[in-house]
Design goal:
single chain; mainly beta; 16-stranded antiparallel barrel; 7 helices
Length: 436
């Protein structure tokens, strides 16, 4: 019975190695515990190192007065987008622990320096940017293969990349832009999740704190809504997320996900909204369809996300004119906030090494891929904004071993007329795997 419980808990992750769905994707949340059944401790993670040369201006006003910056020189940068450590533990009797600690862009750091040549004083200095985040921290009770209760800080699996955000789950050097622009990515919040696998379906239903509309913006839609400047996440209002994946066809995963929650009146102090502002709901609705196909030496992925926030015009008129007096922190980075947003993506790659017997036998792979995106964080039929973008990318992914990828690509970000297009060359080295 004990072994059956463990197998039930790890079923979603272990199915990646089973014959029936050997080429389908597992959920990112399950990856924390995707070690062999019966092992108490799992240690793993993933990481990315990237180099980019961007052949366009890096001036912050390039969309405001595009003609002024069209002849600016190119610029380059090195980055560590994500470095992640997984720790998981099986306590037995169906109880397990999962954690994910992420260092974004090298983490963050500060120091106190003794300045003997400046009036003999102590100075505190920021030594590097970046973020350190606890993306997962949960306890889980597994009752059966079809019913698991997860409690704590969890991944919100709305959209393709949130559900499958490890770097071997997309061809591009950086995470696909569309979902990474309009949605929190990786989206993680504290809440409760019920999930399981029933036949060829995997489901997950979550109860979460609502988002904070005071962090919505034209440039990133609801992406900033999970931010909190406090030592806690405000939960005056609540939200629900749901995801269902189907694995009926070998090598094919089809997924649908959705989100609903109220985003106004979810701040501190609770009674800060007054007058007509008390009537603003800011209801957030998101629907998403995505798929992954892995078979016949091909990998193809795609997604369509569409979202709507009610009372967007009222949120804009209430939040931005009163930023300094209403909130103790910055509300957003755009003057206006749009009610609708969209993100679409499709990519496909073929393993050319599959046609060379010696390389195929050595489990080496070289995918030649194409990638396309269309997204807009400020859908407005009356205007043509710089938020309306297309991305064309072509490149290669080389895998000397299954857990390591070397990526190289040429990418063109294309805008509506009146704005300068943004070409770039990107190179990345990534890994994803378990050490224990």
């Amino acid at each position: 019975m004990k072994q059956q419980i463990r197998v039930g808990f790890f079923a979603a992750a272990l199915l990646c190695a089973s014959a029936g769905v050997a080429n389908a994707q597992t959920s990112a949340a399950d990856s924390v515990m995707s070690h062999a059944s019966g092992k108490k401790l799992s240690v793993g993670g993933y990481g990315e190192v990237a180099f980019s040369r961007n052949f366009y201006s890096d001036n912050g006003n390039r969309y405001t007065v595009p003609s002024k910056y069209k002849n600016d020189p190119s610029h380059g940068r090195f980055d560590i987008p994500h470095a992640v450590i997984y720790l998981g533990y099986d306590f037995g009797k169906g109880w397990t622990l999962g954690t994910e600690i992420e260092f974004e862009h090298g983490g963050t750091g500060s120091s106190v320096e003794y300045e003997a040549d400046e009036s003999i004083e102590f100075e505190q200095e920021a030594e590097r940017g970046g973020e350190v985040e606890l993306e997962q921290f949960w306890l889980q009770k597994s009752f059966s293969r079809g019913l698991n209760l997860r409690m704590g800080h969890i991944v919100v699996p709305v959209g393709l990349i949130n559900a499958h955000h490890e770097p071997l789950n997309f061809f591009t050097v950086y995470r696909p832009e569309g979902e990474n622009t309009i949605l929190p990515c990786t989206w993680h919040q504290t809440g409760v999740s019920l999930w399981g696998r029933l036949g060829k379906f995997r489901y997950e239903a979550q109860l979460l704190a609502g988002l904070d509309a005071f962090h919505f913006s034209r440039a990133n839609w609801i992406k900033g809504g999970t931010k909190s400047p406090f030592e806690f996440d405000v939960a005056n209002k609540y939200a629900a997320a749901l995801r269902v994946d189907n694995y009926s066809v070998s090598g094919l995963r089809l997924g649908v996900s959705g989100y609903y929650g109220q985003s106004m009146h979810n701040s501190v102090p609770h009674d800060m909204e007054f007058g007509d502002a008390k009537k603003i709901k800011g209801n957030v609705y998101i629907g998403s369809f995505d798929f992954t196909f892995k078979k016949y030496n091909w990998i193809a992925r795609g997604n369509v996300d569409y979202g709507y926030v009610s009372d967007a015009d009222k949120i804009t008129s209430y939040v931005y004119p009163n930023t300094s007096s209403v909130k103790p922190y910055e509300s957003g980075n755009g003057k206006y906030f749009g009610s609708h947003a969209i993100a679409t993506m499709v990519e496909a790659g073929y393993d050319v090494f599959s046609q060379i017997e010696s390389l195929r036998a050595d489990n080496k792979k070289l995918y030649v891929f194409g990638h396309y995106e269309y997204y807009d964080s400020y859908v407005n039929a009356q205007t043509k904004q710089w938020t309306n973008r297309q991305v064309f990318t072509a490149g290669v992914n080389y895998h000397p071993v299954p857990q390591i990828g070397i990526k190289a690509e040429y990418s063109l970000r294309k805008f509506k007329s009146g704005f300068e297009n943004e070409p770039s060359i990107n190179i990345g080295v990534v890994y994803e795997g378990f050490f224990l």
